[in-house]
Amino acid sequence: MAYILQVDFELDGPFGQEMAEEFSDLAKSINEEEGFIWKIWTEDSEAKEAGGIYLFQSKESAQNYLTMHTERLKQFGIEPVNGKIFEVNETLTQINNGPIK
């Protein structure tokens, strides 16, 4: 079963292309996390928020990543970090063409 991890936090920037350039190495490192399948990066420059929606192979790998990522963000001075883990209803998700693999 697949699990979604939803993460968001306040961020003063960067956003857009500047964010893409500055966080490129971070993005590449996420690909190496155990159980990681994909991530959609989220940002709202007006609200000064950022985060992501992740898909993991197991609840354990999602929780492990959330724990590590929360600590990493705290080291950057970003607190609080909001994180939630959800089971994916694969049957309904497939009906709506959701990428679950």
Secondary-structure topology with pairs:
Elements: E1 3-10, H1 16-22, H2 24-30, E2 36-44, E3 49-56, H3 59-75, E4 82-87, H4 90-95
Antiparallel strand pairs: 1-3, 1-4, 2-3
Please explain how this structure is put together:
This protein has one domain (3-95): Alpha-Beta Plaits (2-Layer Sandwich), CATH 3.30.70.100. β2 (36-44) and β3 (49-56) form a beta hairpin. The protein is an alpha+beta fold. 12% of the residues are buried. It contains 4 helices and 4 strands. The termini are close together.
In short:
The protein is α+β, with helices and mostly antiparallel strands and 101 residues long.
Low-confidence stretches: none
SSE arrangement, N to C: EHHEEHEH
What's the CATH C level?
Answer: Alpha Beta
Counted up, domains total 1
Please give the alpha-carbon distance between the first and last residues: 10 Å
* Class from secondary-structure proportions: alpha+beta
Q: Averaging pLDDT over every residue, what do you get? A: 96
* Helix-residue proportion: 25-40%
Index terms:
alpha+beta, Alpha-Beta Plaits, single chain, 4-stranded antiparallel β-sheet, Dimeric_a/b-barrel, globular, 4 helices, Putative mono-oxygenase ydhR, 101 residues, YdhR, 37% helix, 31% strand
